[in-house]
Write a structure and sequence with these properties.
By secondary structure, the protein is of the alpha/beta class. It has eleven helices and six strands. It has helices at about 15-25, 60-65, 70-85, 90-100, 135-140, 145-155, 185-200, 210-215, 225, 250-255, 260-280, and strands spanning about 120, 125-130, 165-170, 205-210, 230-235, 240-245. Strands 1-3-2-4-6-5 form a six-stranded mixed beta sheet, with helices on both faces. Helix 3 (about 70-85) packs parallel to helix 7 (about 185-200). The radius of gyration is 23 Å and the shape is globular.
Length: about 280
C-alpha cells in the first residue's frame, strides 16, 4: 500500500485527480503546512518538564453548557448588525450590496462568492432553499448544480421558469463540505432573508427543504410532516402574511427519487394557488 507521503504513480493520475476533487467538495481546499508531514515517521522522544501542580481543567460538559461570554456577545452583535443593515435597504439591489459587505457570518471566511439570489425580483413566486453548494459558490448564483437543474425541470412542469420566480437561500455563503448551516449562521442571515421577502413581496413563498422551513416556520416539525401544507407567514414590513408552502428540497429528491410523487402533488398545488391569486381559470 502506498503511504500518503508518496506521490501517486503516473497510472494513478486519474484517481489522484478524483481524490483532489473530493477533498475540495468536502471543503479541504486550502494547504495549511508549507511541506507535507509524514505521519508514519516515529515521533522523537520528549522528556516532559517538571511543572508545578495546577488545578484540573473544568469538565468538558461545563464548557459546553456555558459558552464563552465573548462568543455569545459576538453572535448577538452580528444578528443586531444584520437587522440594522437590512432595515435600511429599500430595494433588492441595495440589500444585495449590504449582504455582500456583511462580515457577521463566519461562513463568508471560507466561501469563494456571496450567493444572493437569481431570477426575477418582482416575480409572484419566491423560493428559499438551504444554502449554496460547490457549484453555487463557484458561480455566485443559487441552484445552478444538479439540484438546480432538477428545480428548473420541476418549475417547467407547471409552466414556470427563472423569470417567473425569485430564488435565494437562508444563508448566503457555502458551508464547508456542504454541511447544514448552524443555528447561529442562519440567525446572522435571517434579518436579510426577511427583508428580502418584504422587498420582493411575493404572492406565494416556497420553502425548499427542512432547513428553510425550520428557519421561517414556528411549527417545529420536520419537512416530511410540513410539506404540502399551506401556512400564512407574517413578514415584518408586509401588511398581510404570505401564503407559504414547504416542499422537499431538490437535492433530497435526487437522493430519494421515490418521493418525487409527493413533490409533484405539491407543485400542482402551487400552480392552482398561483392561478387563483392571478385570477386565471
Amino acid at each position: 500500500m502506498t503511504s500518503p507521503a508518496t506521490p501517486p504513480k503516473l497510472d494513478d493520475r486519474d484517481a489522484a485527480i478524483a481524490l483532489l476533487r473530493w477533498y475540495v467538495e468536502m471543503g479541504a481546499d486550502e494547504a495549511i503546512g508549507v511541506e507535507p508531514a509524514n505521519r508514519f515517521a516515529p515521533a522523537p522522544a520528549v522528556t516532559a518538564p517538571v511543572l508545578p501542580s495546577t488545578p484540573p481543567p473544568p469538565a468538558a460538559s461545563a464548557i459546553a453548557a456555558a459558552p464563552p461570554k465573548a462568543l455569545t456577545e459576538s453572535l448577538a452583535e452580528a444578528a443586531q448588525s444584520a437587522r440594522r443593515l437590512a432595515a435600511g435597504a429599500e430595494t433588492v439591489s441595495a440589500l444585495a450590496a449590504l449582504v455582500a459587505g456583511f462580515d457577521g457570518c463566519g461562513l463568508k471566511r471560507t466561501a469563494t462568492n456571496t450567493v444572493f439570489a437569481d431570477g426575477n425580483p418582482v416575480a409572484p413566486v419566491m423560493i428559499i432553499g438551504e444554502g449554496p453548494g460547490a457549484d453555487e459558490d463557484r458561480l455566485g448564483r443559487p441552484f445552478v448544480g444538479r439540484a438546480g437543474q432538477l428545480l428548473d425541470r420541476m418549475l417547467a412542469s407547471i409552466g414556470l421558469d427563472r423569470q417567473g420566480v425569485h430564488i435565494t437561500n437562508v444563508v448566503y455563503w457555502r458551508p464547508p463540505g456542504n454541511r447544514r448551516p448552524t443555528t447561529a449562521e442562519i440567525a446572522s442571515c435571517l434579518p436579510f432573508v426577511l427583508r428580502h421577502i418584504a422587498l420582493v413581496h411575493p404572492k406565494l413563498l416556497v420553502l425548499a427543504g427542512g432547513t428553510a422551513a425550520a428557519a421561517l416556520l414556528p411549527e417545529g416539525h420536520g419537512i416530511t410532516r410540513l410539506r404540502g401544507r399551506w401556512f400564512d407567514l407574517a413578514i415584518p414590513g408586509l401588511a398581510e402574511p404570505v401564503p407559504t408552502l414547504p416542499m422537499f428540497h431538490p437535492s433530497f429528491l435526487l437522493r430519494t427519487p421515490e418521493r418525487k410523487r409527493e413533490a409533484w402533488r405539491d407543485l400542482l398545488a402551487l400552480r392552482v394557488r398561483l392561478d387563483e391569486l392571478l385570477g386565471q381559470k
